[in-house]
Amino acid sequence: MSAATSNPQAPVVELAPFRGGRRWVVGGGAAGLVFLILTFIGMAVSPREAFYSYLVAFAYWCGIAMASVILLMIFHATHARWMTVLRRPVEVMAASVAIFLLLFIPLAIGMKHIYIWVDPPADLGREALRLLAHKRPYLNPTGFVVRAVAYLLVATFLSWRLYGWSLRQDKTGEVALTQRQRNLGAGGLPFIGIAISFAAFDWLMSLNPTWFSTVYGVYFFSGSLVASLSLLAIVTGMGRARNVFGGHMTDEHTHSVGKLMLAFTCFWTYIAFSQLLLIWIAGLPEETPFYITRFGAGWAWVGALLIFGHFFLPFAALLSRSLKRNPFRLGVVAGWILLIHYVDIFWLVMPSLHPEGFSLHWTNVTAFLGVGLVAIAFAVSRLRGRFAIPVKDPYLADSFRYRP
Amino acid sequence: MSAGHEDSGFVARRFVVAEFATPEALLAGTRKVREGGYKDVDTHTPIPIHGLEAALGLGRPKIPTIVLCGAIAGICIAYSMIYFCNVIDFPINVANRPMHSPPANIPITFELAVLLAGGSSFFGFFTLAGLPKPYHPIFESEQFGRAAIDAFFLSVELPVGADADRALADVRAAGAASAELVHESER
After folding, report:
1. CB pairs A-B closer than 8 Å
2. CB A25 within 8 Å of CB A373
3. Interface ipTM above 0.90
4. Could you tell me the pTM of the whole model?
5. Residue in chain B nearest A272 by alpha carbon
6. For A45-94, what is each residue's pLDDT tens digit?
């Protein structure tokens, strides 16, 4: 470290490294493992139900982690300064994507219980079998696993590189590290964008292997990003209540997170509606099956719930300025969005198993809690012993006095 | 210069225009002048200054409510118009879809909501700001042009019959570097 490379005007932050979160890491991690083991037992007892439940949970939590990587990279790519004080939680959420390399193993094992293309049954119909044979070079078990590992490695590399540089800056204060973060943030976006799109194609869209929607990847991304921002609102709200950020995070920052939640709620709605309108108005037989199943009597009310719960309710609530500036009330809306995002992923996956209508299996709950608690425990463990804000970031002072 | 002309019944509005050296001085001065009981206080600065709205006691802006009303009006107008055209006035069978097909109606409904929301924010702002306003008495001040360049001004409209000298003394006491009295021109 030399005077030439560090920032002489950096504010002096009197903040000890983060030592909390022990309960989340130990207690949460242990509980998560118990729930995962219960889910694995479920996989032995009723494999189809349990593996589908696990896929919902995996897509939900991994989507949030991958969307957090994208969020972090957008912050860097746009040279955003306001968010410096709350960047550490985003970095930690992004870095947690590594654990999904491990959590993917059950999916690789249980593939044949989930995806019809692994071993297409002969009674599928001549046309469908011909299509699946045509898609075989892409949709095959080896390719599925190799690609999934590749998506997760791309996300892990980007998030760990960015987080690593950020942590190094905590010690050295090198300004050059900020430039590197910005370069990688911008340059890596196409790769992570392709990774999350194809992850959605592989993990979720291939549940109906003869069906396709080109906007599916963006749909998955947009929902995941709303959920990621909601989780950020809750995490930063809890951090503020426990004084983790040393009082440097203010209502202005909370307000801006709320604004992003509102914007991406609209984005999700826009994508969801575009997909519906284009398929509905064209009415082509190869595009409609997805919606025919979901417009059926057993699933229609879930779709209606999504329209109201994933758009109208959060949209109306987030229009309020005073709500967005109140960490607790924003946290309540964020909690609701996290819940309804689960319904969204559930609605994407489960009709493939139960086309006749909605049904909930106990493994839905255990898989959700198992994957979630393990991922959260891993994320919190990434933060322990580090500073809760990037203490030597050259733009920290700008972030402290942020007034939009 | 007299404050009015008895023959036409015109009473010139009077303003105290005070210049402050720094934004901080302006903020403090604004608070002090308002605490002194002056009602029609305004500030004029070349750059946005955080905290001035609070110092002026402006409260929350009304624009968001106007925009929301505009958006809701747009939704109602568009949807009812499409419904009237497609279902009541001129039903046409398109690919055997129901006459009332909500997905097809959403884009127009959204567009009109955005159009009227945007229009109401623009015209709402104009109306609330009292624009267009080709003349304002404060421009009678020679110095005031600098409010667009490098000076921080505070203006107080004096009620009819108020003591101008006392007002001038009050704004100087509140930290103004200079203060003058301007009269509305009769033209």
Report:
1. 15
2. no
3. no
4. 0.88
5. B103
6. 999 999 999 999 999 999 999 999 999 999 999 999 999 999 999 999 99
